[in-house]
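Memo subject: From amino acid sequence to discrete backbone structure tokens
Keywords: amino acid chain, backbone geometry, structure tokens, three-dimensional fold.
Body of memo: The sequence and its backbone structure tokens, given next.
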Amino acid sequence: MAKKTIDQVDVAGKTVLMRVDFNVPLDDDQSIGDDRRIRMAMPSIKSVIDRGGKLILMSHLGRPKGEGDDSKFSLAPTAKRLAELLGQPVAFASDTVGDDATAKAKALKDGDVLVLENLRFNPGEKKGDSSFAGKLAAMADVYCNDAFGTCHRSDASMVAVPESMAGKPRVVGHLVAKEIEYLSDTISNASRPFVAILGGAKVSDKINVINNLLGICDNVMIGGAMAYTFSLAKGGQVGNSLVEEDKVALAKELIAKGGDTLMLPIDSHCGDDFKSDCNKQVVADGEIPDGWQGLDIGPQTAKKFSEVLKKAKTIVWNGPMGVFEMPPFDEGTKAVAQAVADSDATSIIGGGDSAAAVDQLGFADQVSHVSTGGGASLAMLEGKAFAAVDLLDEA
């Protein structure tokens, strides 16, 4: 699945239209709470401007509905922060394909950078509109996709724009190249034992992932709240635990299909309320009393999972084992994170909560790869094809 990268294209004197993920958190004063997504795009940005290319950056931010005050979703703060990181001026266009964007794109000199206003301010972005895409495409000589978090979507900037640029170079940036290397290539050629760890609240969010991984992994471990739907499917008592009653039949099918490959918790750390200072007890799986809820895998499960992870050669992890934001119900996630960090395996952490957990617990530097896209990494683990990636130039 290897794709041609931005480094492999001659950009000197050319205009590069790069889709980035600048969907950063902004506070009420329009200050950026976490600029990590901007910093992560820097290698691809510098690859263009350091080699004398002209760069136009496009991204979405939040979910503007075109109602009320959309200015809180403006990308202007990201242009300002990027200028600080680069140590050079960064132009900002007040629209995407209007007069301001067109004029500022034409005025770019070699090594200059322009950030367009939020793509989602134009309804054509979410609709995948070819007319909107054509106007964006007309601004540039090269298309670069460095926004893995939206690679599973069919937004105009992801699919219709590169389609409109057929015949011109269409490549991936550093971030997307790395995601493909780990999430696609490593998984399709996994060293064994290959172990998947799946957590989070809902079985419904992970059905297709579980199904796909049961067919390719040696072990698939289940934790988090979705484990209680499996417990119910086995006829267990789950007390007040979060369960999906309408997914019990499906959980039974997955248990039957999974056999020894599917590893479910053998004990549960419970509380009588959803708070840190509640009364707590550890019970065997399927023995949660009324008035209590499972909030984490128990110590025996953590030990069992850790022993299997020690021997793994490839590990994929998506979703925490419990309520990791609320000690002491972070212990299961912590134990699993420690086992992953201590293993010799190629370890891939899916985006979203599992990435946040690994980061919060201080293990981010001890794993092989932390994905930048929650929904996109899940879709790739399902084995889905990505139109936004498939149409780009092969390496």
